[in-house]
Amino acid sequence: GTPGTAHGAGWERPFDAAAPDGTLARSLPPELRAALADAVARPAAQQPRWPDLERVGEIRAVLEAAPPLTLPAEIDGLRGHLARVARGEAFLLQGGDCAETFTENTEAHVRATAGLLHEMAGILTGATGLPVVRVGRMAGQYAKPRSNALDALGLPVYRGDIVNGLAPEPEARVADPARMVRAHANAAATLNLLRALPGPDADPGLYVSHEALLLDYELALLRAHRGEGGTRLYAQSAHFLWIGDRTRQRDGAHLAFAELLANPLGLKIGPNTTPEQVVEYVERLDPHGTPGRLTLISRMGSGRVRDLLPPLVERVAASGHPVIWQCDPMHGNTRESPSGYKTRHFDDVADEVRGFFEVHRALGTHPGGLHIEFTGEDVTECLGGFQRISDADLAGRYETACDPRLNTRQSLELAALAAELLGG
Ligand code: PEP
Ligand code: MN
């Protein structure tokens, strides 16, 4: 199937307003400049309906002139660490909120997420001896793809704090490009704290990532660097970016944009991904067979991972591309609880992780990582686990702005399970 077509929320705006005619474009060699222009001219799914495109241009100019959030040396450094994951010598642990929000971007929240990520990594390393590369869904995870253009109340859907507000009021839901400036400022504040926090004793500290969804933001934080191999484009909004399951259209802007980046990239692949598609993705996103360049993030659902993943892994292995296989056990296991909450059951999450490991063990490939939505707080958003969170418990602390997250206890349980599977 074709991603995106089943989803009603994908307003497709060709990026005429985003044609790269600013200073960045002028600094590019003609070939790269043409490739970027071609990428952004393609249809882009899941973009906001900004009411005023002129204002978007002004905001983009502000961000183009602002300091970037990450640096090429760090981005290349992460790629080096990920190369070890691709070779089976390390594990990739990535996670954080489904959707960060401006108001929850507090010191306590950032510390809790980073601290729990390090604690989970410690469990994994302790049990297996493998180094763990740590990547937060942090400092920029502000844009969300949605299944429907309207919510249950008939209001334009919330698309993440970088676009509009969560409050169920028409004014809040108007897309406001100035939110991109606040997102940049909040991300900078988060990174400032993360860089100051004591990291783990061992390398490599904590890197940050988000879905490369909102192209106006990503283009504004794109920077060109001239090096030995010519001019390279770095998305300096994060270290690692991924393309979501709803925006991986082969002719779309997101994939074409990602192809041009020097960053390590992820690609979410859901149940309708075919082996033919996955080979095309791998060839386009990792044309040179670079270890650490591409992470394929499977999110099949616990009931399907054992059937759907093997043919994809086999085809990629046959292609020779050294990708990282990462399991997202969250997005294929979302359910509505009887009382009406969007939730996930810990047993399903754990079972998808088990299935992922089984598939890779059977094929002799490296189960390279986990990609999860979690928070280091005692929320009640996912069912089950040691605390046996029930449907009736969900109302207690259901605080997510988007998808349900594992809480502290559930995250530690999952880390223990992954440690056992990885060690065994
Ligand atoms: C997400 O990671 O929050 C997300 C939307 O995932 P996917 O693209 O896999 O649906
Ligand atoms: Mn999510």
In short:
The chain has 424 residues and is of the alpha/beta class. The protein is 37% helix and 14% strand.
Bound small molecules, by name, code or SMILES, are: phosphoenolpyruvate, manganese (II) ion
**Quaternary structure classification:** single chain
The amount of beta strand, in percent, is 5-15%
Helix content: 25-40%
The parts where pLDDT drops under 50 for at least 5 residues are 1-11
Q: How would you sum up the global shape? A: globular
EC number: 2.5.1.54
Region (Disordered): 1-24
Protein name: Phospho-2-dehydro-3-deoxyheptonate aldolase
GO molecular function, one term: 3-deoxy-7-phosphoheptulonate synthase activity
Describe the structure.
Keywords: Amino-acid biosynthesis, Aromatic amino acid biosynthesis, Cadmium, Cobalt, Manganese, Transferase. Pathway: Metabolic intermediate biosynthesis; chorismate biosynthesis; chorismate from D-erythrose 4-phosphate and phosphoenolpyruvate: step 1/7. Phosphoenolpyruvate binds at residues 137, 268, 299. Residues 1-11 have low confidence and may be disordered. This protein has helices at residues 23-27, 30-41, 53-65, 72-86, 107-128, 179-196, 215-220, 253-259, 275-285, 305-319, 346-363, 408-423, and strands at residues 91-96, 132-137, 206-211, 222-227, 230-235, 240-243, 265-269, 294-298, 324-327, 335-336, 342-343, 367-373. It has 424 residues and is α/β, with parallel strands linked by helices. The protein is 37% helix and 14% strand. Strand 6 (240-243), helix 8 (253-259) and strand 7 (265-269) form a beta-alpha-beta unit. An eight-stranded parallel beta barrel has the order 1-2-3-6-7-8-9-12, surrounded by seven helices. The two termini are 36 Å apart. The chain is built from twelve helices and twelve strands. Bound molecules: phosphoenolpyruvate and manganese (II) ion. Phosphoenolpyruvate binds at residues 98, 145, 211, 244-246, 268, 299, 331, 403.
